[in-house]
Amino acid sequence: MAQQFTLYSGPLSMFGAKAEIAAREKGLDFELVMVPFDFDKLYTPKHPEVLRVNPKRQVPVLVDGDLALFDSTQIFEYLEDLQPRPALWPRDLRERARARQLELKSDEVYFPHVVRLMGLQSSLQDAPALAAIAAARAYCLEMDALLAQREWLAGSYSYADIAFYMAALFGERQGAPLTADMPRLLAWRERMGGRPAVRQVAGTMGRWLASVGRPVPAFLRALG
Question: Domain 93-221 is in which class?
């Protein structure tokens, strides 16, 4: 690559954090642009590069010369081709397919329950919130069982781990925490927090939350 690419993210963007962790795991040299965000205005006004690249008007966005990408999964795929080592998809064809499906499920099966909880924070004891918490919990128990014979979700460390770590971080913040009956998943989260790239990105998010007076889960505070 002739020039440094630019990654546009936000201080509380789960999907942006996924892309940033992946870039840091790859040891890539890039410029990180954090677009303005607060809890009242959200991402308003929108960053002009985000508007130019992404019809959905949201981060993450990656710009590498005349190439502009949006969507964290598409960015994952580009980074894997750009810098094949260290590999973040399994080498085996079938295992790679399973890893890709796990990454998809984190975004499209688990995370929608967390999104529902974001709008139910004042009524977490009511039936709609309890149903979302139960569904998120069932998914986490499924991931805990998956870890019975392996250290990482797809066997080797992969984008599947990055995706679910960030999704579960948001689950924790919204009232769907990992619990003591998920010991393998709790141990996995500790292993994730021990990775320098994860610690840097998630730790920065935790510090940002603290700086604006928002609660920070204990495991996130521990990342410093």
Answer: mainly alpha
